[in-house]
Structure formats: structure tokens, C-alpha cells
Amino acid sequence: MAGTTANAVTVGLTQTDSVMQCPPDALEIFKREFIPLQSMPRFGQPEDVADVVGLLCSRDARWITGCVISASGGGIKIG
Q1: What mean pLDDT is predicted for residues 40-65?
Q2: Do residues 14 and 45 make contact, with C-beta atoms less than 8 angstroms apart?
């Protein structure tokens, strides 16, 4: 197991089929109340999250372990 890393990715509101199939009133609440509070005020795209996961799977992240990485456009703020 030498060299194995273990990390987690927290994902914000992402424009997936499941999210977009929410009732229209729920989507309006997301757009009106949640998205404006994000540092990057938009729905995330699946590739936004995939890029973070890809980085963590790459050699470039070989020294990152035991971390929780937020891929939320600033929607999930810790502190």
C-alpha cells in the first residue's frame, strides 16, 4: 500500500440530469437562493468535478493525502 493516497471530494450543486429533473420550483430556489451565495455563481458542470478527481488521481497529487477537497465553486465553505 506504499504510495496510496486517500482523499475525498465534496461536490456542490452540479448540473447533472438528476438535478435538472428536480421540480421547477426547486430549480428556481437553487437559482434564486443558493447559486448567488457561491463564490462562482453558476451551476457546476460534471467536467468541473471530473477535473478535480482527475487531478487527485494524477501523479501531480502524489503528496496530497487525507484531504477533503471542495469542488463546489465556493458553495461549500469551511471555516
Answers
A1: 96
A2: yes
